[in-house]
Amino acid sequence: MKGISLSVPSEEEMREVSSYIHEYELDDRSLKKEEFVIAKREGKLVGFGRLRQHADCEELCSLGVVTPFRRKGIGKAIVKEIMNRSKRPLYLVCIIPEYFEPMDFRTTANYPAAISNKLSFCTIQLVVPESYCVMRFR
Ligand SMILES: CC(C)(COP(=O)(O)OP(=O)(O)OC[C@H]1O[C@@H](n2cnc3c(N)ncnc32)[C@H](O)[C@@H]1OP(=O)(O)O)[C@@H](O)C(=O)NCCC(=O)NCCS
To answer: 101 and 66 in contact (C-beta within 8 Å)?
Structure first.
């Protein structure tokens, strides 16, 4: 996307990411900056996402775009970068499957233990009116 650069966050940038993760009520467990991709515009953090490594798979999680910068293709650019970095079966847990479907994620009822744990965490700790679903890339 034009005017956007993607990179791994510095320590300072990771603190900013962490504060947005809390603000947007995303998964904040065991954050590791090396697993994150951030998007910057004119030197400012505008979005972030994580390719989390599990023993049995990878997970796209903690995806967020800073509110005034939404609907400009930044989330999509971060997801694409995470897909490019992914080397093993890639899953995610979300409440907006319609957002991920055009990017080749499909809902599935078969997933590894780490994703099952994530689904339980979301259902119990991140309570929302919508239902959570698991999706797998391709
Ligand atoms: C979900 C989120 C990451 C999307 O980021 P974004 O930068 O606004 O999304 P994009 O601009 O890349 O959107 C890509 C496409 O998805 C559509 N879209 C955007 N948000 C959507 C949503 N919430 N539901 C369904 N479709 C959506 C856009 O219209 C766009 O379509 P187009 O390519 O035809 O124009 C952002 O809204 C966000 O940070 N939300 C709060 C945190 C969150 O819900 N994270 C996801 C947890 S799984």
So the answer is: no
| Strand 58-65, strand 90-94: pairing | parallel
Question: Which among 40, 46, 37, 21 is positioned nearest to 81, based on CA atoms?
Answer: 37
* pLDDT single digits (tens) 111-128: 999 999 999 999 998 888
Question: Which residues surround ligand 1 with Cβ inside 6 Å?
Answer: 24, 63-65, 70-76, 94, 96, 98-99
Closest CA to 103 of 131, 128, 73, 66: 73
Position 137 pLDDT exceeds 80: yes
Q: pLDDT band for position 57 (50/70/90)?
A: very high
Phi/psi for 26 (5° steps) reads: -100, 175
For the whole model, what pTM was predicted? 0.95
Q: Which atom of ligand 1 is nearest to the CA of 79?
A: 12
